[in-house]
Structure formats: structure tokens, C-alpha cells
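Please go through the sequence and C-alpha cells given here and tell me how the chain folds. Record follows.
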Amino acid sequence: MPPVSAEAAGAADAVIERLPSPGEFRTAMRNFVGNVSVLTVGEGEDRSGLVVTSAISLSAEPPLLLACVNRSASSWPLFGRYGCFGWSALGAGHQKIAERFAGFGGIKGVQRYEGASWVTGKTGAPLLEDAVVGIDCTVEDMIDRATHSILIGRVRDIRIRSGQGALIYWNGTFRGLDD
């Protein structure tokens, strides 16, 4: 990124009278449509996971993905502990799974896995058996910024099951899109 001149920085400061509040920012972000996936990590009773609403391709060679994970999330320390994770893109019929991994009703940890079938990836990471796309990753890096870590995953294996539509998140609600 090119350096910003002192004059340009001063002009930008003069234009910005007030920064948006966290609530305003969240409201704005809810207007972006996001694909819904669950990141899964751990093994046995030491498993957890969370919903993410944007799968970002960082690189095709080598294949890398990134997601932003809140450092206060119960699953956050597990990414470093296990060094691998599953990324399962959800289909139109997976809303209940998304709600469980979003913690609806206070569901936490290994309880989030109930009511669905899981397979173990090559790395040992759990993957949703009938996910539209299941991506088995190792942790390449975790970069802390503000309240979150940018989780970079190196793709080790991919499973694809087309024909299930997609689950999206828009305006504070999960919505199914059929094929």
C-alpha cells in the first residue's frame, strides 16, 4: 500500500467528524449477503465450532482460505491447540446446523455437533458429511487484529456435494437458496 501523505491524512481526519458506532457498523454489515459455513475444530469432548458468513479465497497456489474469528469465541483457542479445522459450506437445508453453531439457545461446544452426521478429514478435523463443500485445512497462520484473528487455512482436501443450494445470511437472518 502506498504511504499516505500528511496532507491527505489531515484531510481525511477533517472529513470524518465521527466514527460509526459498533451498532451502526453491525447494521451496515448485515446488509451484505454472506455465504454460511461452519468452522469445526477439536476432537472428542474437546470439540467446538462456529458460523462464519464469508469464505474468502486467499490463494489458489497454494490453496489458502481465510476467515475472521472473534478471539472471545469458545472455539478460538482450539485452532491453535489442534492446528487443523474443517470448513463446511452449508446448503439450503442446513439452517438448524447453522443455528446450533451460532449458539442459538445457549448451545456450546460438542453439543453443537448433535443432530448431524460428521466425518473426519485427512487432518483429523471434523467435516459435515453432507456439506455442499467440505474443506479440510491446517492452520497456516492466525493474525490478531482488534477483537478478531484472521485465520488462514491451508487446504489439504476438498469434498463436493452439489445440488443442495446454499444457505446465506442477510439482514440478520439465515435464508435458503435452492439450486
